[in-house]
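Form 7-S
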Amino acid sequence: MTTAYNDAAGRTPTAPALGDAEDLGGKTFYPGVYNSASSLQITAGDLTLDAQGDPNAVFIFQIGSALITASNSEVILAGRAQSSNIFWQVGSSATLGTNSTFNGTILAYTSITAKTGAMAGRLLAMNGAVTLDNNTLTNGSNATTGSAGAGAESFPLLSAPLSYFEMVNGCH
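Output:
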């Protein structure tokens, strides 16, 4: 986890810096490395990630502090974009709103909370818990791999760190 987090954080941005507390809702992004020194949110509509026909295209979002999504928001994949090629490096914590649909791997420095009904890819927290409340998680190929039961559950950190290869290619 640490290697993957540091790798994502160390990438050189390929686009102009995103604004502090910028809302990505209603926007379309193309493959690249995007950086915000502060927080990012998806609250004013859905976010579209368009790979422009390249199934190997990579999206990396470097977020200085928090990532927040609104209830019922969605990260939409277009142009053959793959959830397994999307990384959200978050400097503190991430919160996925109720019934939101989120694609990609969140690599949070502190913790992640997925509110009731949120659907997400991989959720990995380095120094805190991943808290689920009746959520559906998917692996990199978008196949359902598990769901937390009714009521909030908190899952502690993995006892063994994942290699960068496991982070990029999924754990088995």
